[in-house]
TrEMBL record:
The keyword Membrane applies. This is Uncharacterized hydrophobic domain-containing protein. It comes from Microbulbifer yueqingensis. PANTHER family: AT15442P-RELATED (PTHR20992). Keywords: Membrane, Transmembrane, Transmembrane helix. It comes from the Bacteria. The chain crosses the membrane at residues 326-350, 362-383, 389-412, 419-446, 452-478, 490-509. InterPro entries: DUF389.
Length: 611
């Protein structure tokens, strides 16, 4: 890994080389210099050659011997100068960076005023480069010593890259870093929110313990004071795409101004499609929190068993009472999702130990849940299975899709601290405990077919959650670089088994889906009328105590010819005028004079006569 300094012409040497050298020294890496024949200048081909660059560098190195980083470059192997004969300097630098394993490119902006060249749309290096990039503004007459560095945070995806570069320079040179952000409303609460955002940035970059970084919140309206503060520093670093670059260059005189772009963590095809700001990779702090949370949550502990046992009791009671609200409450209590995510993490990390630990927790939780629900089912004799229980006994392909999406959502939310609140929704969507409770209750009532269906639903959830969680973690950058052949075989074998199980499950799940479609969904014959309509009808019917309203509602079928259907019962034949009056009442109460209303009257076939 090395730092690449791009020189489009000899005039850029005094601006680019000092900062490139300081960055290379702070990263303890070599510096490569790409000398370029600038096609726009009237210089014959070959005049700006390696020899020309080396001579110019030699003069410049001797002139700047007082700069510690430049003297370090004269050590063997630390400085390499080469030239590539292509027409576009930026494209050439990008190609060299990919070929030479460059980790950061340093270049001067063609427009030193900052009006252009500071955004992904106006700079080829920023837009197409696959490594970190620093573009310098302000010209060669500005400071070239990184004693004090100012970093302006603007909620950009590249703030972290700018802060890391600044901290490395400060650590290497014994300097200080001012990390600041500007707030439009400069009230006490706004200052506190700004400081929290800065502390979060420090945490995301793993620099929260650094003593060289000082956080400040500035008043966005006090432009002069902000410019004066920046002018007291040697380097002002902003994130790529920052709207402040031109104004900072204009208002300051002393510091070098630069924009920094982080290396895109996405693969090239994903970067091209989704763009830099859609990068889902984890910060080091979030990565560490994720590993810690899932490793602890995957352990078989007393807390895990207690919470799972209580959620099983709640879920079993909710299923027996046919209460969706109680069942949903049990889903929020159950901790069974965490070890399943631990299984997905173990696959991505090639960590059999974590995988075995998480799998043991899932197996123990499964056994505990089935035993408790079986006991509850046996202690409640005479109660029939409810629709809530039967619903878990007929899974289909849609449940596989739901489980896969829920597993991906759970993995993504677990890795993002600001999305922790979404875990509750994931738990409700997945519903891991109710299928297990349905197994136990169904076995207690000798409903073997429903128990098998509920077991199939749980297996579907488990396989889909583990596979999709592993895929999500992988896309977010969770992986291990050191794996033995045995670990790789374990991952390949486990993934193959889960994939085969998923394919086998598709058969019965598809059959269940087709069967459900052919049978149709149960729905009511009619929807109730409003209370005002019912009361008006009752007031009229009560005048004749022998007449009774059996049903009154709106037909559920869209093919029914009428809008409202009334069914009456009477021991004698009613007059048609009676029916017309009921129709009038319905139309008047519903305020629809053209409403189609049907009135049916049933003669009572049997009636007990009083003696």
């Amino acid at each position: 890994m090395a730092v690449l300094a791009l020189l489009r012409n000899a005039d850029e040497i005094s601006q680019v080389i000092p900062w490139a050298a300081e960055i290379a020294l702070s990263r303890n890496t070599a510096l490569h210099v790409l000398g370029w024949h600038y096609a726009a200048a009237p210089i014959p081909d070959g005049e700006f050659s390696n020899r020309t660059i080396e001579a110019a560098l030699g003069r410049f190195l001797r002139k700047l011997q007082r700069i510690r980083a430049i003297s370090r470059l004269e050590e063997p192997g630390n400085l390499e100068v080469f030239e590539v004969g292509e027409r576009d300097a930026d494209e050439c630098a990008i190609a060299v960076a990919q070929r030479e394993d460059i980790e950061l490119i340093v270049a001067a902006a063609p427009d030193q005023t900052g009006a252009t060249g500071a955004t992904l749309s106006s700079s080829t290096l920023l837009k197409k480069g696959r490594c970190s990039t620093v573009i310098l503004f302000g010209g060669a007459k500005r400071s070239r010593q990184p004693g004090k560095v100012f970093v302006s945070a603007t909620d950009s995806a590249h703030d972290g890259a700018a802060l890391v570069i600044a901290h490395q320079l400060a650590e290497c040179g014994g300097g200080e870093v001012t990390l600041a952000r500007q707030e439009a409303d400069y009230e006490e609460v706004d200052i506190e929110v700004g400081l929290r955002d800065l502390r979060k940035l420090l945490r995301d970059t793993g620099l929260e313990s650094s003593t060289r970084i000082h956080c400040r919140v500035l008043n966005e309206r006090d432009v002069a004071a902000n410019a004066q503060l920046m002018d007291a520093h040697d380097l002002v670093l902003l994130a790529a795409n920052s709207p402040l670059i031109a104004s900072v260059v204009e208002l300051t005189r002393h510091p070098t101004v630069a924009v920094a772009k982080r290396a895109p963590a996405l693969r090239p095809w994903r970067h091209a499609v989704m763009g830099e700001y859609w990068n889902p990779f984890l910060s080091p702090a979030d990565y560490a929190d994720l590993l810690e949370t899932l490793r602890r949550g995957s352990m078989l502990t007393l807390d895990f068993l207690v919470m799972l046992g209580l959620s099983t009791v709640v879920a079993s009671m909710g299923l027996l009472q046919d209460s969706p609200a109680v069942v949903i409450g049990s889903m929020l209590l159950a901790p069974l999702m965490t070890p399943m995510l631990g299984c997905g993490l173990a696959l991505v990390q090639a960590n059999p130990r974590l995988g075995n630990t998480a799998l043991q927790s899932v197996a123990a939780g499964l056994l505990l849940t089935v035993v408790i629900s079986l006991a509850i089912g046996m202690l409640t004799p005479g109660v029939e299975l409810t629709p809530e229980i039967y619903a878990r006994g007929a899974p289909n392909v849609l449940d596989l899709v739901i489980a896969g999406a829920s597993g991906a959502a759970a993995a993504y939310a677990s890795a993002r601290p600001n999305l922790v609140g979404s875990i509750a929704g994931v738990a409700i969507a997945t519903a891991l405990v109710p299928p297990l409770c349905s197994i136990g209750i169904s076995l207690a009532y000798y409903e073997l077919g429903n128990a098998i269906g509920a077991a199939l639903l749980f297996l579907t959830n488990f396989v889909a959650i583990v596979l999709f969680a592993a895929a999500t973690f992988r896309l977010m950058g969770v992986r291990t670089s050191r794996t033995r052949r045995r670990q790789r075989r374990w991952v390949a074998g486990t993934v193959a088994v889960l994939a085969i199980v998923a394919l086998v499950l598709l058969g019965p799940l598809k059959v269940s889906l087709v069967k459900g479609l052919l049978q149709g969904k149960p729905q009511p014959n009619s929807y109730p009328l409003s209370a005002s309509v019912i009361e008006a009808l009752k007031d009229y019917v009560e005048e004749n105590p022998d007449v009774e309203i059996l049903s009154a509602g709106r037909p559920a079928s869209p093919h029914h010819p009428s809008d409202v259907v009334l069914v009456l019962a009477a021991p004698f034949e009613l007059d048609k005028a009676y029916g017309r009056e009921l129709i009038r009442i319905v139309r008047e109460e519903m305020r629809q004079p053209d409403l189609k209303v049907e009135v049916h009257c049933l003669r009572e076939l049997w009636q007990e006569k009083s003696r």
